[in-house]
Amino acid sequence: MNESYVKYAVSNGIGVIEFYTPQHNSLPAKILAQLAETIAAAGIDSNSKVLILQSGGNKTFCAGASFDELMVIENEEQGLQFFSGFANVINAMRQCPKFIIGRIQGKSIGGGVGLASSCDYCLATINAEIKLSELPVGIGPFVVGPAVERKMGTTAAYELTIDGTNFRSAQWAKQKGMFAEVFENIELLDGAVQTLANTLANSSSEAMREIKKIFWKGTENWNELLLERAAISGRLILSNYSKKVLADFKAKTKK
Fold it and tell me: Is residue 253 part of a domain?
């Protein structure tokens, strides 16, 4: 697969949203916008009662922000616009009236951890390690931070933020509350995801909608908060430190 995409399909009341990019499912602005739009549209689609969020391929779930696009940010306005893409996706997931099941088949990095944290229920494989890699790039998990902290607690979110060079295991993520269950392989993961989705597709839409409202209570200010956080990342990515890290990364990938 060489073409990036966001797809949405519905079967038996289950809506599946899948995204993919060739760069380890990293997220450029275009895919972020499509993902936010697709989640919002799926939320009001009467054909689906529950949603599954997944990525293409069998390896990385999501490598976070597209380094190619980070490298070409030239001013704070462009930085705000790019990082707002993550804010829009998280807010779309938060405001979606349907439960979103996360199918996490592989590693999540940076913004990918934010996506997983914004799902209402996550199932994963043992290969689903997580890492918040923003600090080593000279920024921080400002946009995804509220979602990670809400899901895992302040202590775990702080650990991930400070130690941004090392992955935490899927079992660690489960112990901290990000994953509900961890499976040995993708086949077992898919079976569990389908079983849960089938159960929810036969449950009360009204009850699920009210439950989601309750459990996301206290996040009503995120439309403003996440944009404020996006502005911080958009400013910091312009620093000499970040520019050097990105340049070194680009040079390394060309070898």
Answer: no
Split into its structural domains, the chain has a count of 1
* Residue-wise pLDDT tens digits, 49-68: 999 999 999 999 999 999 99
Look at residue 44 and tell me if it is in a domain: yes
Q: Please say whether the beta carbons of 6 and 19 come within 8 A.
A: yes
Q: Does residue 141 belong to any structural domain of this protein?
A: yes
Tens of pLDDT, residues 98-128:
999 999 999 999 999 999 999 999 999 999 9
Report how far residue 114's alpha carbon sits from residue 135's, in angstroms, rounded to the nearest whole number. Answer: 15
Determine if the pTM surpasses 0.90.
yes
Can you list the positions of beta strands (E) in the chain?
Answer: 5-11, 14-20, 50-55, 100-104, 108-109, 121-125, 130-131, 181-183
CB proximity list for 243: less than 8 A, separation 6 or greater: none
